[in-house]
Amino acid sequence: MSAEVHVSAVVVVADRRALVVRKHGASVFQQPGGKPDPGESALDAAVREVAEETGIRADPRSFVSLGRFTDAAANEPGHVVVADAYLLRVDEVFAEASAEIAELRWLAEDEVEHTPLAPLSRNHLIRHAWA
Q: How far, in Å, CA of 123 to CA of 39, rounded?
C-alpha cells in the first residue's frame, strides 16, 4: 500500500491562463501548493503556499473549494498525493518564482497537452481553470 501525502493545491487563473510551477529538482509542473504545517487548515496552507511560491497574496475568501483529489505523487515515488484543491481567480498576472520554485508558467488551454504536468494536475486540477 502506498503512503499518502496530504497537500493543498491551488488552480490560479488570470486572463484565461492557469499558473503552474516546477519545483527545484522536479521535471514536471503542478499547481502551486504544498503540505499544511501542523495545526494549519487546508485553506490556510493554500493561501500561505501560493504567497510563498508565487508572491500572489490573496484574501482567503477568494479561494473556492474544488474538493479533494487523489493521484500518484509526482515528486515522491511510491506515494499517493491527496489534495484539498481550490480555485483562485486573480486580476493581475504578475507572479514570480520563489521559495522552492525553479520555474513558473502561465498556460493557455491549448498548451496543456504539450506541457509536462504532474498526474494530479493533468488528471484532475488543470481543467478547472477553464470550466
A: 29
Domains and their CATH numbers in the chain: 3-130 (3.90.79.10)
Query: Among the residues of the chain, which ranges form H helices?
Result: 42-54, 119-120
Model confidence pLDDT, tens digit, residues 1-30: 579 999 999 999 999 999 999 999 999 999
CB 101 within 8 Å of CB 24:
yes
Q: Which residues contact 114 (CB under 8 A, 6 or more apart)?
A: none
Give dist(CA 81, CA 7) in Å, integer. 7
**Rounded average pLDDT over 88-95:** 86
